[in-house]
């Protein structure tokens, strides 16, 4: 298997063989990974076809600057290699499988008197991992079953033979309540303990028949010895396994190991359900969401999901059932689409789960959209607005005792913060603490710029403050000629009063109203954004002033020192020679002397 590089212009030189191709952009960033039965035909299809190719694919092709290929022996090898490369690089044009969480495993440790416990980290050499489990609940069900059937230790003690012989340990509460047989004190031998571990291992593998046979034999042997109490305990454990197995039995037990995959799609997403069947029981069920990137077909998305999910859940089932008819068989994968019988019932069950997941997603999205729409419509009604206020901008000033006056503007689109549209403002034309004049300046600057850039005006402007601040903002809108084109209100903090221009009396919105809560959220976000900015400015100026207060040290020198040493404290701790390297001997002596005199005081 060898990698070779090509330019987009030389795609016709690619071999007519199975493999994986990788597309890179001009920044040498991997943007797409694909697999093909014939690299030459598949890659050529991107550059030769024009009609029927969607916009996203054409956009990707324009970005391609380099093609890298890797030859493999079969189409299945290509699928597996493609999956590994996508997992590592996450190229932006590949199908996105929305399932990034880590899954739990049960670990059977490699140590004296092995333990079984849950983990999400796989560390090579630590033991044998079973899973992953689709949910913590499913994992705990298996773990609880094992702990009810066998007395397996839960402590972390090193039970080396010589430590047990030296009697380094004492039995704990688990021994006294019957959950452990005390191997730490030598009360249980390792051969007997390992017999239980072997049966537990079979359960972890999904082979319930072997431990059932184990308990049945032990029960019969105890009964033959007239040890009826012991026989009853083995019978209880046998019944527990029967009950556990009966819960998950869905088809004829003669159906052994197989995987079931079904897919349903809409315009942008696909939903794939996976059922893992072992010995006629559902061993695992999982539904995932896939996001289309290049308008992929159902078949492409299903094959992608099959490879990724089998890899993720470590399935080696020899047979795969799906709900689609594939155009071509994939060599190395035994894929079938049953039409009748128990296997068709499994397809129907899986498809039912996939459709249910899709419906739940649509309902959840609809509820979110409905809530946003409802709140905005309520706000429109409460403020008597002509248009739905799906674009709101809010302004706030911040200064403490007149120092470093700044302002902020926050933007909400469809009722949600649009953080990229937030703006900070340094007050340029106003001297001293004048909130009204500052508001006039920033509102004027904001909408003059909007008009110059020919961008859309908001559907509602909110001013954090009462009549005075609102009047100042109105003055700015009048100066640039948009007063009356955009609704504007002021919201006073104390009583949550809403002020309108040229109206002396405020209105009050019901305190429980979702519309008022949205306005409060917008106002509070503007206030937070302004305060944070103001604190940053004050902090930087305070540090700079400490240095510029030294005779002969200006802003440029102070900036150099702070850039190099990061803080005044680190400058104070530095050696004179280190400061000299940054600002020269003369200035360094002044800084060193001034800061160290201050320290000694």
UniProtKB/TrEMBL annotation:
This is UvrABC system protein C. Belongs to the UvrC family. Interacts with UvrB in an incision complex. InterPro entries: GIY-YIG_endonuc, GIY-YIG_endonuc_sf, GIY-YIG_UvrC_Cho, RuvA_2-like, UVR_dom_sf, UvrABC_protein_C, UvrC, UvrC_RNase_H_dom. Keywords: Cytoplasm, DNA damage, DNA excision, DNA repair, Excision nuclease, SOS response. Residues 16-95 form the GIY-YIG domain. The UvrABC repair system catalyzes the recognition and processing of DNA lesions. UvrC both incises the 5' and 3' sides of the lesion. The N-terminal half is responsible for the 3' incision and the C-terminal half is responsible for the 5' incision. It comes from Belliella filtrata. PROSITE patterns: GIY_YIG, UVRC. Pfam families: GIY-YIG (PF01541), HHH_5 (PF14520), UvrC_RNaseH (PF22920), UvrC_RNaseH_dom (PF08459). It comes from the Bacteria. Its main location: cytoplasm. Residues 264-477 form the UvrC family homology region profile domain. The keyword Nucleotide-binding does not apply. Gene3D superfamilies: 5' to 3' exonuclease, C-terminal subdomain (1.10.150.20), GIY-YIG endonuclease (3.40.1440.10), UvrC, RNAse H endonuclease domain (3.30.420.340). NCBIfam families: uvrC (TIGR00194). It is found in: Cytoplasm.
